[in-house]
């Protein structure tokens, strides 16, 4: 049972939310992600991918705030998805010290830089915005432990793809987890770059 081996804080939260049984996808993916491997997670909609992303991020960061630079990054397609994921994350982080921050194109980059400077643990952003933060010295990636991409099919867009390649070329050591409905040829291409020795979990 993957949930039984998660941090006590996470287990308490799942109990509060009355989530007791993992989906087949969660049973397959959580142990592999917890192992620290780079993982391509492919499963249809409503398989529990987003919940898996949140649980494994909290697990990796041990449900507690540390330092000021982000230790987890989650990239999404656009502002709407960023804000929706942020709201869902807050449900799980309400009773621990983790600091979640959301950034997107429409929010002025200087505002984002000053707020991130105050200290964050988890950054939810779009590739273009994160790359802009990075290029303007508004973001340190030196402490990154886990880098996830939700609904990664959007990386077929040239601007998102190029921004991601720019960011990952500067990240020295980190676990990458990509979530998508199915394996797209563009995603497979990342094996030659930052997804080396990756595993595939599919449902």
Task: Give an overview in words.
- This protein has 203 residues and is α/β, with parallel strands linked by helices.
- The chain has one domain (2-202): Rossmann fold (3-Layer(aba) Sandwich), CATH 3.40.50.
- Helices cover 39% and strands 14% of the residues.
- The protein is globular, with a radius of gyration of 16 Å.
CATH superfamily: P-loop containing nucleotide triphosphate hydrolases
- Please give the count of helices: 8
Separation, N- and C-terminal Cα atoms:
17 Å
- Encode the helix/strand succession as letters: HHEHEHEHEHEHEHE
Query: How are the strands of the biggest sheet laid out side by side?
Result: 3-4-2-5-6-1-7
Number of domains: 1
Apparent shape: globular
CATH class: Alpha Beta
- How would you classify the helix and strand content by structural class? alpha/beta
Q: Provide the residue-averaged pLDDT.
A: 93
CATH architecture: 3-Layer(aba) Sandwich
Measured by DSSP, the beta-strand proportion falls in: 5-15%
**Main sheet overview:** 7 strands, parallel
Tell me the number of strands.
7
Low-confidence stretches: none
Helix content: 25-40%
CATH fold-level topology: Rossmann fold
Protein name: DEAD/DEAH box helicase
Domain Helicase ATP-binding: 30-187
InterPro entries: DEAD/DEAH_box_helicase_dom, Helicase_ATP-bd, P-loop_NTPase
Keywords: ATP-binding, Helicase, Hydrolase, Nucleotide-binding
């Amino acid at each position: 049972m993957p949930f039984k081996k998660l941090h006590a804080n996470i287990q308490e939260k799942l109990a509060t939310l009355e989530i007791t049984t993992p989906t087949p996808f969660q049973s397959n993916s959580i142990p592999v992600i917890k192992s620290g491997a780079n993982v391509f997670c492919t499963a249809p909609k409503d398989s529990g991918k987003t919940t898996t992303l949140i649980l494994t991020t909290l697990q990796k960061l041990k449900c507690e705030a540390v330092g000021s630079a982000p230790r987890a990054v989650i990239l999404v397609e656009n502002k709407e998805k960023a804000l929706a994921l942020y709201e869902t994350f807050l449900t799980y982080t309400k009773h621990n010290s983790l600091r979640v921050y959301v950034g997107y194109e429409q929010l002025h980059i200087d505002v984002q830089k000053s707020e991130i400077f105050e200290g964050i643990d988890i950054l939810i952003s779009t590739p273009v915005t994160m790359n802009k933060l990075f290029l303007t010295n508004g973001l340190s990636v030196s402490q990154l432990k886990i880098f996830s991409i939700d609904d990664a099919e959007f990386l077929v867009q040239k601007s998102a793809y190029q921004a991601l390649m720019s960011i990952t070329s500067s990240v020295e050591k980190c676990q990458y987890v990509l979530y998508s409905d199915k394996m797209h040829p563009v995603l497979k291409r990342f094996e030659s770059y930052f997804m080396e020795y990756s595993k595939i979990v599919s449902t």
